[in-house]
Amino acid sequence: MKCNVRLSIAIPDSALSDEDSKRDKSIKVSQFARACSVFRVSTIHIYHDRTTEYVKDRALIKTILRYLNTPQYLRKRLYPIQGLLEYAGILHPLIAPHHKPLVDLRKLKVGDIRVGIILKQQGKLCADAGLGRLINFKGRANDGDMVTVKFSSVYPNLEAVEALESDITYNYWGYEVKEAPNLSCLLSASASTEVLITSKSGKNFGSMEQELIKRMNYVDNLLIVFGAPKSGLFDILEREGKDIRSYRFVANMFPLQGTKTVRLEEAILGTLAIINHILT
Amino acid sequence: MKCNVRLSIAIPDSALSDEDSKRDKSIKVSQFARACSVFRVSTIHIYHDRTTEYVKDRALIKTILRYLNTPQYLRKRLYPIQGLLEYAGILHPLIAPHHKPLVDLRKLKVGDIRVGIILKQQGKLCADAGLGRLINFKGRANDGDMVTVKFSSVYPNLEAVEALESDITYNYWGYEVKEAPNLSCLLSASASTEVLITSKSGKNFGSMEQELIKRMNYVDNLLIVFGAPKSGLFDILEREGKDIRSYRFVANMFPLQGTKTVRLEEAILGTLAIINHILT
Questions:
Q1: What is the mean pLDDT of residues A197-215?
Q2: What are the pLDDT digits (tens) for B168-188?
Q3: Coil, strand, or helix at residue B267?
Q4: What number of other Cβ atoms are within 10 A of residue A143's Cβ?
Q5: CA–CA separation, B196 vs B202, rounded Å?
Q6: CB contact, 8 Å: B262 with chain A?
Q7: Rounded CA separation B38/B215 (Å)
Q8: Given a cut of 50, is residue A1 above it in pLDDT?
Q9: What confidence tens digit (pLDDT) does each residue in A218-238 have?
Q10: Following DSSP, what letter does each residue of B74-107 receive, concatenated?
Q11: Which residues on neighbouring strands pair with residue A135, listed in sequence order?
Q12: CA–CA separation, A202 vs A255, rounded Å?
């Protein structure tokens, strides 16, 4: 069994506006990261929410999301001690397939893949793939690029090339974090992508489930859009001059909810659980 | 639209074994409470997990669950300051229909319902329903009972009786917390109840969804069982001399999961989201 749909989500840069402290904001971001990783989300888009004067936490959101997605062995190199990561130590790890442990160099096989960082040393490219020593890298890349490397030659002459998409045979290989100036530009740029807009005032998702499943036979990507703690997607789109009714799939994912509100971290996890259930 | 299925969940008393501090344990319990309230769970069973020597947090789990379910206006009376509630102040509230605000006594109508505490004052029963004064209560109850009262007479001669199940016309009216000495006794006591056992080694839930939906035409209750952070239900049932294969619905709710593990708080919310989706 395999799920061929690539999932992305979009969250606003005001996503943390209902948390007061940096500690609680950090924990909330880690909950987004966990939910996305459990359900194999490939891209997390952070869009600018124009409905609020709230001082946004965009830097905190993207830094923690990227940090948690980075294999442990690359973190020291990529993330010098900084205020945004003050609470990184208390966040639940993702433990996903691209977070590989240290292995004995002699046990590496041709075709093995690992996430690495490209470094230029004395004019030559090499990769830090968390193996205790640098690996010769054959290919085009820039100093500092994070790439998935594939071993093309074994110990003691370890050498790696950039892995192709087809080399990554794991169910999941982490997410990317992207930024969007607003939501409508993100939605209009999505021609090969179907969009699912989540909203308490949408129709029950059950009533459109079959239509969405059918639709996913024709497109490869599903982008699931979430609103902000203080404004729903109706308001956010309206502020951008768009009418939510012009979108095909506007769904209430949690009909008959027992609480007044569903928190964003709950909405993301719950929605992805339902989508994973119907698409796998 | 209405969901007629009564949902319960069962969690082990070792549910917090992967959290170190009382703060993080408390937050985790509040996540259980939130998930159960969003999806209208009527009973949370806490069963004893025999597979671990871990010092259990049963008192912490049940106290915080009950505290969060209690309307704010009754908390001072029911919960004197205590160590188990040290972090109650930082937990996300449920904000469910039975958490009613203070209302003007003159605006109460016959038939209005509120959660109250029965008190015996000078030989007479009355109820504290968070209205700034006690209400005469007609009926049988003991001092200290928490009951849902229904107003049978309006201001200034306010009087209330115990509400019947049929008086509670809200979608959701909170959960009960019950304790079970072990899991198998809980499962065998469930004749009018179907049981869904969640396990990563179960079959994909999708393969049994239709069968479960059909089954729910014949029983009113669905009990969803969760394992512990450190032992799955296969082990927990085996330690009780039961074979997990003797149960009809043993489901992997999260096929193709991208992370090594799904945390208990994630499993509860994700599972309830899926069940709510298929049953409403």
A1: 97
A2: 999 899 999 999 999 999 998
A3: helix
A4: 10
A5: 11
A6: yes
A7: 24
A8: no
A9: 999 999 999 999 999 999 999
A10: HHHHH--S-GGGTTGGGSPP---TTSPPP--GGG
A11: A127
A12: 10
Tell me which residue of B159, B174, B68 sits closest to B115, measured CA to CA: B174
Indicate the pTM of the whole model: 0.96
Which candidate in B26, B34, B38 is best for mutational testing of the A interface (most A CBs within 10 A)? B38
pLDDT at B255 over 60: yes
CB B177 within 8 A of CB B44: yes
Predicted confidence at residue B208, as pLDDT, reads 97
- C-alpha distances (whole Å) from B243 to each of B51, B81, B226, B234, B250 are 15, 44, 16, 7, 11
**For helices A22-38 and A264-279, angle between their N-to-C axes, nearest 10 degrees:** 0
Sign, CA dihedral B139-B145-B148-B154, equals positive
B202's tokens: 């179960």
Are residues B266 and A94, on separate chains, in Cβ contact within 8 Å? no
Closest residue to A96, CB basis, from B95, B258, B272: B258
Q: Is B255 on the interface with A (CB under 8 A)?
A: yes
Could you give the CA distance from residue B160 to residue A244 in angstroms, rounded to a whole number? 46
Q: Does A21 touch chain B (CB under 8 A)?
A: no
CB contact under 8 A, B266 and A172: no
Residue B269 to residue A271, Cβ atoms within 8 A: no
How many angstroms away from the CA of A2 is the closest CA of chain B?
8
